Amino acid sequence: MSDRSGKFGGEDPFEIARRWLAEAEESEINDPNAIALATVDAEGLPNVRMVLLKEIEADAFVFYTNYGSVKAQEIEASGKAAFVMHWKSLRRQIRVRGHVEREEGPQADAYYASRSLKSRLGAWASEQSAPLSSRASLMAKVAKLTAELGPNPPRPPFWGGYRIRPVEIEFWADGAFRLHDRFRWVKSENGPSWHVERLNP
Ligand SMILES: Cc1cc2nc3c(=O)[nH]c(=O)nc-3n(C[C@H](O)[C@H](O)[C@H](O)COP(=O)(O)O)c2cc1C
């Protein structure tokens, strides 16, 4: 912990994550908040896909999705997930592992309401991860729901957030000669504090 300073400095890993994301927002061409979200199926076979990180809270990370999707089924079965964010322009990554719970209250309503009308209707129309016979059938469903739901659709009951409460967060930054810097924060068993240690690259 002694030589942790500069970009790795600070006593709150969520504050460091917010700072790194803010820097990535300046340098990345697209989607600086994209995370590769990993889950496992019932056999323990890993699964991974990109989603957008929408909030970094005091002690959690939040993203939004369809509760019927494969990722949701896997999260609900295990209660766990991991993700990595990688910023090519900054040559940095953040890795997170933790426990997951739904965010389906007013916060999810507010985020849903902030999306464009087309995105809100798209959330209603898509049976995410289920087979789809054709793009035309999806567009027909969007048109039907647009007429039925009007300009202020409510948040679909099958769509909302997941909150990942980390047990581990690792900050990684590229170093000369592949001697990268890594700091792993591990949540203490009791209480809110963290143990930080430098790892070999
Ligand atoms: C950059 C990027 C961002 C994405 N963001 C989201 C997202 O925030 N929520 C979501 O449900 N899917 C998002 N997707 C689509 C997912 O990668 C995935 O295709 C979808 O959620 C279905 O995954 P599943 O079948 O494993 O549940 C995104 C894809 C990309 C490439």
From TrEMBL:
Which reaction(s) does its UniProt entry say it catalyses?
Answer: pyridoxine 5'-phosphate + O2 = pyridoxal 5'-phosphate + H2O2; pyridoxamine 5'-phosphate + O2 + H2O = pyridoxal 5'-phosphate + H2O2 + NH4(+)
Task: Please state every residue range assigned to the domain named Pyridoxine 5'-phosphate oxidase dimerisation C-terminal.
Answer: 159-201
Per the record's keyword annotation, is Transferase included, yes or no?
A: no
Q: Does the record carry DNA-binding as a key word? A: no
Record key words, sorted: Flavoprotein, FMN, Oxidoreductase, Pyridoxine biosynthesis
E.C. no = 1.4.3.5
List residues binding substrate. K54, Y111, R115, S119, R178, L179, H180
- Alphabetized SUPFAM superfamilies for the sequence: FMN-binding split barrel
Q: Which family does it belong to?
A: Belongs to the pyridoxamine 5'-phosphate oxidase family.
Its biological purpose is as follows: Catalyzes the oxidation of either pyridoxine 5'-phosphate (PNP) or pyridoxamine 5'-phosphate (PMP) into pyridoxal 5'-phosphate (PLP).
The protein's name: Pyridoxine/pyridoxamine 5'-phosphate oxidase
The organism's lineage? Bacteria, Pseudomonadati, Pseudomonadota, Alphaproteobacteria, Rhodobacterales
What gene does this protein come from? pdxH
